[in-house]
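Shipment paperwork, digital attachment
Item: protein structure file
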Amino acid sequence: MKRLFLLIQACLALPFALKAQQQQIFIPFSHPWKYMHPMGALPPRPVQGDADIDFNTTWFLAEPQFLQNYDGPRFGADPTQVASPPVLNSYDSGFGPGSIGYETMDYWVNPQPAPAEFTSNGTTLTTPASGQRRTGYFRTTFEVPAGASLVQPIIRYIMDDGGFIYLDGELVATVNMAPGVTDTYTQLAAGADNTESQIRVLDLLLPAGSTTGAGLAGLAGNARIVKQIPLLSAGTHTLAFSVHQWSLTSSDLGFAFQLRTRNNISATVSGVARNENGTLDEPEDDTFSFSVTLTQGDGVNPTWMSDAIPPVSGSYEPVGLSKKLKKGSCALGAGGIDGVMVGA
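Attachment content:
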């Protein structure tokens, strides 16, 4: 009888084993960014007037190291540095809300799926002259509150045409860039196909080398994980990225970024009832029934795992199916499905 009680206790532990944290958005699409967007050649250092020879290794550093080491073209605090019309060494420098870019993004007029989550840029950059359209640079900081953590972070994004993503000074992912290329101002993206019609999802929980960012209707992923990030601890973090054109005459440039936690599966157990089958002194034939309600997130099919001994796991099942519970285990169907566990 004691074992029977422990098995039922394992089933009742399911809400604690499966329930995930509420989805949290740490960087919304409208989050403000510091930016530096050249109009032609990479601008010189503003104080010295000469080339910034370590620009490619310092612009993306975590904020404390950035403030200590970066002396290149200014991000964020300056008024616009763009001449009219734009000249070779001029650049946009400012601080404004996302999405950010110039000209029209396909997502505004033909979103997949509809309706669009935004229909214009929060900040519009100056359009460089045709033949001078290369790369824009963007930085921000965000807080994970004390006593909390950002578990299983994902990035929802549009990046037109491609780029490099850095977290706390380390490269964590690339988007639509050829394998092996480095992040330099003159490096072009791998192409422009399907880069701006839908919001993609970059899964930072995947191991290094994984492809991610798949789109709707079988659209292949266009991002590659460089460093796996299972969680971010409490404190101040820096997100930086470069957006690269695929052609010097490309018609537009733009990005939209949202950083949030994964919205995982949750489960609740209710209606636990015991049936002694008319044999009060024979617990071996007793059964217990209960109802398990699963809630999935992110529009994907999650998996489950119980606290039974030994542990049991399986795939999410469509509503309407159920699983017979085997001796010594707890198994789940979909929302509101009943299960039965045989006594032991």
